[in-house]
Amino acid sequence: MSRLQHHADGADAAPAVFAAVDIGASSGRVMLGRITLQGGVQLETVHRFPNGVVEIDGGLRWNFDALFAEVLEGLRTAATVAAGQGETVAGIGIDTWAVDYGLVDASGNLAAQPFSYRDGRSSDAVEPVHRTLDPERLYATTGLQFLQFNTIYQLATEEGLDGVQALLIPDLIAFLLTGARRTEATNASTTGLFDAVAGEWATEFFTALGLPDGLFPPLIQPGEAYGTLLPAIAGRLGLPSATPVVAVGSHDTASAVAAVPAAADDDGGFAYISSGTWSLVGLELKHPVLTAASREANFTNERGVDGTIRYLRNMGGLWLLSECQRTWAAEGFRPELSTLLAAAAALPGGGPQINADDPSFIAPDNMPERIRAAVRSAGGVLTDDPAAITRCIMDSLAAGYARTLADAERLADRSVDVVHVVGGGSQNALLCQLTANATRRPVIAGPVEATALGNVLVQARAAGAVAGGLADLRAIVAAGSSLTRYEPADLPVTTSRK
């Protein structure tokens, strides 16, 4: 089957484009994606906006009202840009971070601004949940990595859940656009309340924890439509009310992994690192790994597009560096990131490292001092030189990636030949080279916009603009992306390939 298809009435219809709403923990954007005749995807950013946790009502929350206003502004701009080029917005897809949710009553009102996973409220709920549901039983059903902010622990802190529904953040946005209440499956798999084998809600866990039936809406799979735009929303956006809002891999990592430009003959023999605020490091499998050894290694089994399993560990990421930059900026030190990384690269290897996954790094605070304190507690010494702290972060992340991938290969009985780094971290040449050195594997870096590409391609496939399985979607990404290959240090350092 050809990867590109044309509608029967394509000669008369306006060219179709797809709007991708892609929101991370620190920023968001709305992009237009066009399927080109050359077999690639052309992306155009039409709106960017900041995001971040704020102190509201005594907790760290998301200012969701402001966030949704930015989404509407972005979609309005997307409609204007598309119309100006004689195009039609054929669909809207939404991806965000995982685990967080808003509580919506029967009238569709949001009870409060949603809590952020960076708030510490759920840490005290872990022990009570584990008294009710043994961790071994939890893992044998959900296959989910233990993280203190998983949805299951957040919900255990809530009171008065009768009469409301929990909508994960992308589903909440889709609800406000369409009026339809659904839970997209890749994100549902991050809640701790999802059966990794059956692909359904683990209803016995809701009962055991006293959570109401129907707390989450029914599941929807990537490629299915939530519905079409509410008339009032369509009018505000300047789009037809028939415009569909399509479920994509709404957990941003699911969309990113769908766009990993792995060759079809890799047949799963690749690893991926979705590198951004967090690092999602793992393999793509056909079946979950629910063994005791996998639980002890704290690996997660999350759903991917087309029913795949994202077998990974959620690790610390470039949040460490961005928080350092925020602290340094407040002190008057504002170097360009490229300058900072070049200075770090000039330092010798073998310096101090930290455990980038330590919970002490989750909340925003003085990150440089926390990193130095972690080094001191391990008996090391780290100066307050920003270049040295940056090198410590890069070395620590690369070493953590190598350990995680070695564990993943062992636990899944899978051999990895190449490591794909996608997302913002793929632009970080120092991190990519250190990762190649640490893993002793070639690293292929790019695309930066993997999440948006995965979002657009799932929409395009649902609309019939492209066809095929994940291998076909990935071939489209590879055909249209400039990728950089990093070899381990004792081999030629970098080459580029199209």
From TrEMBL:
<dbReference type="GO" id="GO:0006071">
    <property type="term" value="P:glycerol metabolic process"/>
</dbReference>
<keyword id="KW-0418">Kinase</keyword>
<keyword id="KW-0684">Rhamnose metabolism</keyword>
<feature type="domain" description="Carbohydrate kinase FGGY C-terminal">
    <location>
        <begin position="271"/>
        <end position="463"/>
    </location>
</feature>
<dbReference type="Pfam" id="PF02782">
    <property type="entry name" value="FGGY_C"/>
</dbReference>
<dbReference type="Pfam" id="PF00370">
    <property type="entry name" value="FGGY_N"/>
</dbReference>
<dbReference type="GO" id="GO:0005829">
    <property type="term" value="C:cytosol"/>
</dbReference>
<dbReference type="GO" id="GO:0004370">
    <property type="term" value="F:glycerol kinase activity"/>
</dbReference>
<comment type="similarity">
    <text>Belongs to the FGGY kinase family.</text>
</comment>
<dbReference type="InterPro" id="IPR043129">
    <property type="entry name" value="ATPase_NBD"/>
</dbReference>
<dbReference type="InterPro" id="IPR018484">
    <property type="entry name" value="FGGY_N"/>
</dbReference>
<keyword id="KW-0808">Transferase</keyword>
<protein>
    <submittedName>
        <fullName>Carbohydrate kinase</fullName>
    </submittedName>
</protein>
<keyword id="KW-0067">ATP-binding</keyword>
<keyword id="KW-1015">Disulfide bond</keyword>
<dbReference type="GO" id="GO:0019301">
    <property type="term" value="P:rhamnose catabolic process"/>
</dbReference>
<dbReference type="InterPro" id="IPR013449">
    <property type="entry name" value="Rhamnulokinase"/>
</dbReference>
<dbReference type="GO" id="GO:0008993">
    <property type="term" value="F:rhamnulokinase activity"/>
</dbReference>
<dbReference type="GO" id="GO:0005524">
    <property type="term" value="F:ATP binding"/>
</dbReference>
<keyword id="KW-0547">Nucleotide-binding</keyword>
<feature type="domain" description="Carbohydrate kinase FGGY N-terminal">
    <location>
        <begin position="19"/>
        <end position="257"/>
    </location>
</feature>
<dbReference type="InterPro" id="IPR018485">
    <property type="entry name" value="FGGY_C"/>
</dbReference>
